[in-house]
Design goal:
The protein is an alpha/beta fold. It contains 12 helices and 10 strands.
Length: 326
């Protein structure tokens, strides 16, 4: 029987997460689910540990071993090889709540509209205490383009859910075109999620939960030497909006996104200055962001609901960056 959903998980040097991963997927009893695990060029003994686990696992499983491409590249490989019409992405250190997949499948089967995405109810897990994701809307389903608008400045909707496979493939194709205009980014997955939302007909929310492990040491989270490249993702988001949407309000939100990321990257550059070996790359990324912000009225992108003192500090910080990098 062809699976309805393919659950895709990239793993890189994730030996400590293997036990949790298999414990999690054993809870999923639906027979029409495919599991795809991509070993993204791990340099530890992840491969050997996985082979031991596979001997004891009887589910519908595809294991892919490849050279390191990063999380977004590994997921794309899994999506392309997936048999299911729908895709769910699962980080190896996170977990699904009971009946999460079943709840999503029921929405897909029973909802009369053409639902291209069903989001899980996201909960953050820290010290075994759960907290809820705060949605910016209180009505479902939501049109894909409206959902996109809720993610530009900040994440009013999250991206943890089940997407139609063709929607993901379209998002990756758009990303390929945008990438020709800039350099490789470190957080392509965020832009892919936004573009996927934009190309959805409708997005719904199910009762099944996705548990995000806040304390996880996963390699897809936290500081790394290439975190400055997130600025290219913000620049590409602006380019996408200019090409596809042409909304002044949404464009202002995208510039605010770039502004906040630019200031955050510069703060990280200062804090980690001694251990950063690729300083010229960091400076080039910051300079590219400053050039994109140059000429755009900062008063248009200030958040009028935010703390005025913080906005003044942002302006001063930005003026310093214009002086240093322009």
């Amino acid at each position: 029987m062809k699976p309805i959903i393919s659950i895709i998980t990239p793993i890189y040097n994730g030996v400590v997460h293997i036990e949790n991963y298999f414990k999690n997927i054993r809870k999923i009893q639906e027979g029409n689910v495919e599991f795809i695990l991509i070993n993204d060029g791990s340099t530890d003994d992840t491969h050997e540990k996985l082979l031991e686990k596979f001997k004891k696992f009887s589910g519908n499983f595809l294991y892919i071993q490849q050279e390191n491409t990063g999380a977004a590249g590994a997921r794309l490989n899994g999506i392309r090889r997936a048999s299911g019409d729908y895709i769910a992405l699962l980080d190896c250190d996170d977990e699904f709540g009971d009946n999460a997949i079943l709840s999503a499948i029921e929405k897909i089967k029973n909802y009369p509209l053409r639902v291209d995405c069903v989001l899980f109810d996201l909960k953050y897990k820290k010290n075994n205490i759960l907290s809820n994701f705060k949605y910016s809307i209180d009505y479902w389903p939501i049109n894909g383009k409206a959902a996109f608008a809720e993610t530009v400045d900040k994440w009013g909707l999250h991206g943890f859910g089940v997407f139609r496979k063709t929607v993901y493939l379209t998002a990756y194709a758009v990303l390929d075109k945008l990438a020709q205009l800039s350099e490789n980014r470190v957080n392509d997955d965020e832009l892919i999620t936004r573009i996927a939302f934009y190309n959805c007909n409708y997005i719904d929310l199910c009762h099944g939960t996705y548990l995000y492990n806040v304390e996880s040491p996963s390699t897809t989270r936290g500081y790394n030497k290439n975190s400055h490249k997130m600025l290219y993702t913000s620049i590409s988001l602006i380019n996408f909006i200019n090409n596809e949407i042409k909304s002044v309000e949404i464009l202002n939100n995208a510039y605010r996104n770039l502004l906040n990321h630019t200031l955050a990257v510069h703060r990280s550059y200062i804090v980690n200055f001694i251990k950063i070996k690729n300083k010229e790359e960091w400076k080039k990324s910051i300079s590219s962001a400053i050039c994109k912000l140059d000429g755009f009225n900062i008063n248009n992108i200030n958040n009028i609901k935010s703390n005025k003192f913080k906005e003044i500090i942002k302006k001063i910080h930005l003026e310093i960056l214009f002086y240093m990098y322009k």
